[in-house]
Design goal:
Oligomer: single chain
Shape: globular
Number of helices: 3
Strand content: 35-45%
Distance between the termini: 60 Å
Order of helices and strands: HEEEEEEEHH
Number of strands: 7
């Protein structure tokens, strides 16, 4: 009987705790979707440079949109910062494939207060496109392999800090 009670308690706890993260993530996705579809009036624009990265910044009501051109590697990444009540809730990066026009590599960091509670990495793919399983996704679609989790962890923070100092 004790084992059954323990099993039910562990199962219930895992289910409930897992749902909280999922519910918050879905709520943030909904806020980001609404920020992308509404409030399209640009409040402020600026251009800045970070090392060898040229950054064009546009501030909207609940979003900051950046276009990041990596001058050495020729990579291009769009990074969007989403806010609710002026608090950062999501950072989403999209690297378009230089080889296949409609494909992208995505990185997303979800925030609860000031902490990242969920990270997501995914790709937009075409079902009918043949895949060479002997090559990495970076080789197949031409993505920059240096634009990875460790890079984005540091870059998101540095970019956001620099933008914040510009009172955007």
């Amino acid at each position: 009987m004790n084992k059954l009670l323990l099993f039910i308690l562990v199962f219930f706890s895992a289910f409930v705790l897992g749902q909280n993260e999922s519910v918050l993530k879905n709520k943030i996705d909904s806020i980001a979707y609404n920020a992308d579809k509404s409030n399209l009036k640009v409040i402020k624009e600026l251009t800045l440079k970070m090392d060898s990265i040229q950054v064009k910044v546009k501030r909207f009501k609940n979003k900051i949109e950046t276009e990041n051109t990596f001058l050495k590697s020729k990579s291009f990444v769009t990074i969007n910062f989403y806010f609710k009540d002026e608090k950062l809730i999501l950072v989403r990066a999209e690297e378009k494939s230089p080889l296949v026009e409609d494909l992208s590599n995505f990185t997303a960091f979800y925030y609860d207060e000031k902490d990242v509670f969920y990270k997501n990495y995914y790709q937009k793919v075409r079902i009918c496109l043949p895949i060479d399983f002997d090559k990495s996704i970076y080789e197949v679609y031409g993505y920059n392999k240096n634009l990875n989790e460790s890079f984005f962890t540091l870059y998101f923070e540095a970019l956001y800090t620099k933008i914040s100092k510009k009172s955007l």
